[in-house]
Structures are given as C-alpha cells and as structure tokens.
C-alpha cells in the first residue's frame, strides 16, 4: 500500500528564494531517481546551508509522472539542496536534471530538500553529538580571546599562524579547538599527498572546474613548535586529543619521520591525552614508525571497501587498497584505537555490492568506530567516476540499521573520542 504523503518539491528562483510546488511530489536520488518517502525526511536542521544548484532543474512527480521544473512564472529556476551541520549524515541526494552548460558543483555534501507541514525538510539523520563539536562551544568572542592568548603564548609559531587562518577563514573546529584548548586540536604538517581525491578540499586538479575549499598548507612547523603546543593542549583537559592529518594538508604519513620525532618529544614531556592520526593509511611502513614513536589512535579515510571504487575516488599514487587494509591490521595488532572515516554517498555506501565488501572488511578487521562523513562532491561527478549501482540500493537509513544489528559493538558516529 503506497504511503500517503504530503511532501512536495521545492525550487529556487533567480533571487535565491525557495518555493514549494503544490501538487508536485518531491523526488530524490538514491542512486536511482524516484518519488520521495516523507518518512525519510526530518525538519531542516539548524545550521544547515541551503544551496541553489545552478543550471539544474528540480524533479518532481505528478500522479506518478516525472516532471522537470526548469521555469516558473516565465523565469529560469533551479534545484535546491542542503549542506548539513556537523553531527548529521545525509541519507538521500537531490534529484535534478542538469541543463546544457551546467557548471560543476562545488564541494558540498548535497542533501535532498523538500517541503512538508509548512517547513523545509531534509533527508538526514542525527548521527552524533559531542559538546566540543557544537556551535555553542565555538562562540566568536571566546575564540577571539583564545586566539590572542595562544598567539601571545607562542608568538613565532608557524603552526599557530596556519591554525589562525583555518580557525577564522575556514571555520575549522579542530583549528579553533587548538586555541580554545578543548577537545580535538589540529596539527597540520604535510604539504604533499600520495592521492588525488576527486573531492579533495585542499587541492583540486586544474581541470576540475572547481576550487578547493581550503588552501593546502605550505609551511612545516618545527618539532619544537609542535611539541610545545601539543603538550600544553594535552595537559589542559582530560580526554584532550592532538591530531595529525587535517583537511588543509596532504597525507601526514609522507612526513612520518618528522611527526615521529614530534611524538617522541611530546611524550617526553607529558603522558596525558591522546595522540591521533587521520590518514589515507596507504603507507603501512611509515605508519609503523609513528606507532613505534607512541601514536595511540588512527582514523582511516575511505569511500569504499571495493578496491576499484576506492581507486576511482582516491586515485592513489604508489599505493593500493591492500596497503590501506594492511595499515588497519597493523594498527589493530599494535593495540591502537582504530576508526574508519567512511565517506558516505547514497547509491554507493548502501549499494548491496558495497555492503557485501564492507561487511567482509569489518568482519576481518573489526574496528572500534565507524564515522559516517557526508562526502562533499558533485554527485554526477562521483557517479561518473564510480558508476551508478547495478542493484537497488537499500537506503542509508536501512544501512545504519544494518550496521547496528550486524556490528552491535562497533561505535557509529561522526567524532573521534579521546582516552587518557
Ligand atoms: S588523501 Fe586527503 S589530502 Fe590527499 S588528495 Fe585525498 S583528501 Fe586530499
């Protein structure tokens, strides 16, 4: 029995105002375009960004027939999507028809949006909450004071110069935490990378047609700069974390000897908190040097557990998916806390073929936590690289249910937790 629903399509006028289209059922893309199910939508979360998709006509359904909304009241109109705040995971993509000449979309995690009960709704799930990742813990005035205090404490620090830019210009919470001396603090050190991710936020290929969201770091902070800043952060609060491998840098394993020296120096000064690494984990031997130095926690980024789909997105240079798996095994064997930073995308993550591969990976290497990260990329560019699913995707909500039932002891969420 078809679920009677009241969720209608929306579109944006040239002035950016968003309207609903009464009588037109909303459409979504789950890897295949179809009619939206109102039960998959929640009220648009506070802090969401409403995005107009240039050169793209919103799709809706009238009595089961697909309709493309290219014009309204004689003017060209566009499809709409939302970029969700931290702590949420997108569950469905917007459905649209790209018109000739439509530009590539910038790096956002596009979530489907529709109109229901007199308000905008989004296809999303609340998937985590941690105080140090909430807007209330990042108030502008407190941040200004904290930046002034830290800069006075470490006046010549290249590291803090970079972090101040990240905190102010990019609004990066781990950079802001470095000044606010709370939670997980960023330590970016590596300008180079051994991958060419389609959705890299710090460096885009010249022919990508889009700009990266951040500028790749260029300066490498000294061991002393890193150690003195990190020691102060770790000693300041229980459960504090310092983490190498941030959005503004390349791959930290390419700077392993330098990071290993810094880790040893930190541990010669304090035993507090957690030293963590975010990485593509493509270099297990380099990872070994960090573990020997005292690394305690590793988060491995991946978009897929299928080597071909992994390579299509990461475009790795000099390593393969088997190296990533070897790094996970090594870190587990050495007793590190291991989590996955799963770049989720409807139509890929919840593709039954992908779930079979992911199931096999997690059974062979049961990690402590799977973090679901909404992948920030133009969906059409991503599907062009990986292909649309051959089998009907189960849906991201069903994927979360499957994860909880299949791996009940594995933490699911969005944020790294410290220990010690
Ligand atoms: S691994 Fe990170 S830095 Fe390297 S290309 Fe991918 S997103 Fe960019």
Account of the protein in words:
With 420 residues, the chain is an alpha/beta fold. The chain has two domains: 2-126, no CATH class; 131-413, Alpha-Beta Barrel (TIM Barrel), CATH 3.20.20.70. It is built from eleven helices and 23 strands. It has helices at 140-153, 158-168, 173-180, 223-236, 256-269, 284-293, 307-314, 321-333, 352-364, 379-386, 396-406; strands spanning 8-12, 18-29, 33-35, 42-43, 49-53, 56-62, 65-69, 71-72, 75-76, 79-83, 88-90, 93-94, 96-98, 111-116, 119-122, 124-126, 184-187, 241-244, 274-279, 297-302, 337-344, 369-374, 411-413. Strands 1, 2, 3, 6, 7, 12 and 13 form a seven-stranded antiparallel sheet that branches. The protein has a seven-stranded parallel sheet with strand order 17-18-19-20-21-22-23. It has a five-stranded antiparallel sheet with strand order 4-15-14-10-5, with no helix packed on it. The protein binds iron/sulfur cluster. The site of iron/sulfur cluster (SF4) has 10 residues, from loops.
